[in-house]
Design goal:
4 helices, five-stranded antiparallel beta sheet, alpha+beta, 5 strands, about 30% helix, globular
């Protein structure tokens, strides 16, 4: 099993993410899944949100400037899929606005400004 990063105190972000996963998938594994998702939210990959009934995570790949998706479970985040739309936006904000993230299962709070609700505030 991969080594995990110590996220310290269980934060609001972690609690919200774990709650969303528990509602859609497994309450038993929600905390472990949350930790695995946030372990990958560093360096070359930035967590954008969850889709497909919280079965897939969407990350922004800084190197290729594209969104990539991956399945995940309590053991970790699976291999990232190559983006299907390589001619799409090369900026996170443009991608998030185009994707209409309001339909996603969960959007990372740092990207909620891209949602219709976030733009109204």
């Amino acid at each position: 099993m991969p080594e995990t990063t110590d996220h310290g105190t269980f934060t609001h972000l972690e609690g919200e993410l774990a709650w969303t996963i528990a509602e859609h998938r497994s309450p038993t594994d929600a905390v472990a899944m949350t930790e695995r998702l946030l372990d990958r939210d560093d360096g070359p990959f930035e967590l954008l949100g969850l889709v497909d009934g919280c079965e897939r995570a969407v990350y922004w790949a800084h190197l290729t400037r594209t969104a990539v998706r991956a399945a995940f479970d309590a053991d970790g985040v699976d291999r990232f899929e190559e983006p299907g739309d390589s001619d799409g936006p090369r900026r996170k904000g443009e991608y998030l606005q185009r994707e209409a993230v309001t339909g996603w299962d969960w959007v990372h709070p740092r990207h909620r400004w891209c949602t219709a609700e976030g733009r109204r505030r």
